[in-house]
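User: Structure tokens for this complex, please. No commentary.
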Amino acid sequence: QLQLEESGPGLVKPSETLSLTCIVSGDAISSSSYYWDWVRQAPGKGLEWIGTVYYSGTTHYNPSLKTRVTISVDTSQNQFSLKLRSVTAADTAVYYCARLRWYSYGIYYYYMDVWGKGTTVTVPS
Amino acid sequence: QTVVTQEPSFSVSPGGTVTLTCALTSGSVSTTHYPSWYQQTPGQAPRTLIFSTSTRSSGVPDRFSGSILGNKAALTITGAQTDDESIYYCMLYMGGGISVFGGGTKVTVL
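Assistant:
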């Protein structure tokens, strides 16, 4: 059974770079049917899509975060990562990694079918 | 910039029916947005309910159904139960690899 687990520092100083990794177990990250996504949720707020990466390294980002975000994949380690630069208190959130099913046997899907439990990142003001 | 909108809140009686919607500030929602719906309770990760407009995810009770109503995606809970009290988010695929979540609808069952 596929499991995703986020890891990284729980506290990041303002102006520094937030770095998180999602470890994928139970399936290969190089499956052609899936992208690998990051989603965050600020305290008391809704879900915000951050971006996505394919096993080939192809990425797509939320336009509102694009200038500060890099998502990368390491197929040898079966994991993918998020870097968010120049953080402020507004980046304080629970960060989730998720698998996005996009295509299988001729059918398109585009939904998140497996989620990590999330990790809390705080940027003090 | 197109925004995905949902009702902020709904209240439903136990056993009742409620329909939540997911709209675009510009244009209509269609099946080509591949609407999906997620349920979230406090302190928990989202749970996938519906994908591709109307397909229930594995293990999701059949009281949850998805559809397109007019120019919006919709999630209907028929025969609401107390443990359906949650926040429900829709997500739309906007093309070009971009996904967008709605703001969420808080459903109260009482």
